[in-house]
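Would you kindly consider the sequence and fold I have copied below?
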Amino acid sequence: MSLIAQGFLYPLMFVIVISIVIVIHELGHYWAGRYFGAAVESFSMGFGKSIFEIKDKNNTRWRVNWLPLGGFVNFVAEDGIIENEGKASDQNEDLPEAEKPVGRPFTELSAGARIVVALAGPFANFILAIGIFASLGMILGDPIQRITVAEVMEDSVAEAAGILPGDVFVTVNGREANRQKVILEEIKLSSNDTVDLEMLRGEELVEISLVPQRETRTNAIGITERTGFIGVALQRELVDRNRLNPVSAVGYGVSETFGTISSSIDMLGRIVTGRESIQQLSGPVGIANVAGGMARTTLEAEQVSLGTRLYMLLMSNLQLVAFISVAVGFFNLLPLPILDGGVVVFNTYEAVTGKGLSEELLLKSKFITLVFLAVLAIFITLGDFEEAGLLELFRGL
C-alpha cells in the first residue's frame, strides 16, 4: 500500500474508532443527566462549527460538527450559561422562554446525582465493550487452543530456562494457558519479573521459572513494541471453536472487559513503580497507528477474497473499539480534576461536608492537571511516533 493511501487510511480508521468511543461516553453523561432532569443545551458529534443540527422536543440541539473527533454534551448551568468541564457560553441568555432547554440547571442537581452523571460516561464505555466482546463471542467464539513451542531462539531467556521445541504450555502464572492471548499477556506485561510456567513435555509436567527481558521488536502490523520477550515461536492448534450462547457471551463480555481493566491497573502500577516506561501508554498517534496498521495488514492479505478481508477488518476493528472504550472509561475514572473521576471526588466532598470547594481551588487544581496531562501527552506522543517509525522518517528528511 502506498504512503499516500496509508496517509488517508490511518487517520480515517482513527476517526472511526475514537468517534464511536467518545460519542458513546458522552451519551452516557447525557442519558444520566436527562434522567435526573438536567437541561441539556446541546449534544455535539465532532468539534468546531456545526454543519447540521436539529432541535428535539426538549430544545436540545443535536449537532454534527465539521471536525469528526468524538463529541461532547453541554448542560445548562445554574446562572443560565452552558457548562462543559470548565467551558462556558452565554448563548442561552437572550432566548425566549419557550426556546430554552427543558429541565433544571446542572448545578441544581444534588451532589449524588452529579456523581452518577459523571460515572455514567465511563459506565457507558464499559457497557459498549461488554456488548462488543459478547457479540464477538457469539460470532467468532472463544477458541480453546493447544499452544506448542515451535522454536526456541538461540541465547534467549527460554533457552537458558530449559524450554524445548515441542513443549506445550499448561499454565502461566497459575492461569490456564489454553489461549495464546493468556500467554502473551503474562509474558509481555512481566518484563524483568519472574514468570512461572507449567509445560507438558511428552507425558511429563515440567515446572519452569524465567524472567522475560524487555526488548524492542516490530509486531505483525508493523508497530514497534517494548515489552517482555522470552524468545520462542508459538504454534497454535485449535481444540474447540467454543462459540458462545447469549448468556455465556454476556459473561464472556464482562470477563474480557474487567480483564482489560485489570491489565490497565497492572500496567499503571508498573509505570508508577518504574518497572515500565511511561511511553508504554498510547495516545491519538498510537491509536491511529494500531487502527491503520490493522486495516492495512488485513486489506493486503493475499489469496483472500475482498469480502473475507472486509469481514476480518470489521471483526478486528470491533475488538479494537472495545479495547479503546475500556481504556477511555478507565482513564476518565482517574481522580484528576478535569476528568470524571475528579468530578466524583469533588462532589463526594460536597455530599459529605455539605459545601463545595472554592472556585479558586477548583481552577488551580484544573490548571495543574492540564499542565501535567500536557507534559504526559508529549512523552506519550513521542513514544507513539517512535513506535510508528515516524521519528526515523523525520531524521531522514
Q: What stands out?
A: The domain at 143-241 is CATH 2.30.42.10 (Pdz3 Domain). The longest strand covers residues 40-55.
